[in-house]
């Protein structure tokens, strides 16, 4: 979904950073921070190092696929097999 609401964008960025169940993008790439200045929505794009004006950002909340992706830590602990067998 597209959003211009700063509170909603910041909540999605927190979910992206700490929970991993959301992805926040704008037309230039993944967004890691957002703010408003003089009424204009500004976004910091991953790896670009400065603020860029944007109309809105796209927020995607992942379903089960992203949450069940195997990470190296899960693979070592054996949790990935338990999650896969419980489907």
What labels would you give this structure?
single chain; 87 residues; alpha+beta; 6-stranded antiparallel beta sheet; 6 strands; globular
Put the structure in a nutshell.
The chain is α+β, with helices and mostly antiparallel strands and 87 residues long.
Give an overview in words.
The protein is α+β, with helices and mostly antiparallel strands. The protein has one domain. The chain has 4 helices and 6 strands. It has a 6-stranded antiparallel sheet. The two termini are 28 Å apart. Mean pLDDT is 79; it is low at 64-77 and 79-84.
Give the helices and strands, then pairings.
Blueprint: E1 2-3, H1 6-19, E2 22-26, E3 29-37, E4 40-45, E5 51-53, E6 57-61, H2 64-67, H3 72-77, H4 79-85
Antiparallel strand pairs: 1-6, 2-3, 2-6, 3-4, 4-5
Low-confidence stretches: 64-77, 79-84
Question: Largest sheet, described in full?
Answer: 6 strands, antiparallel
User: What gross morphology would you assign?
Assistant: globular
Round the Cα radius of gyration to an integer and report it: 16 Å
Give me the strand/helix succession: EHEEEEEHHH
Oligomer: single chain
Helicity level, as a percent range? 25-40%
Beta strand %: 25-35%
Q: In what order do the strands lie side by side in the largest sheet?
A: 1-6-2-3-4-5
How far the N terminus sits from the C terminus, by CA atoms, comes to 28 Å
Q: How many distinct helices?
A: 4
Structural class: alpha+beta
Number of domains: 1
Give the tally of β-strands: 6
Summed over residues and divided by their number, the pLDDT gives a mean of 79
């Amino acid at each position: 979904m597209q959003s211009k609401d700063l509170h909603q964008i910041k909540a999605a960025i927190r979910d992206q950073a700490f929970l991993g169940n959301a992805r926040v993008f704008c037309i230039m790439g993944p967004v890691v921070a957002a703010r408003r200045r003089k009424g204009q929505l500004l976004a910091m794009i991953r790896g670009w190092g400065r603020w860029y004006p944007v109309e809105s950002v796209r927020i995607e909340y992942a379903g089960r696929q992203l949450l069940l992706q195997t990470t190296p830590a899960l693979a070592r602990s054996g949790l990935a097999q338990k999650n896969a067998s419980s489907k």
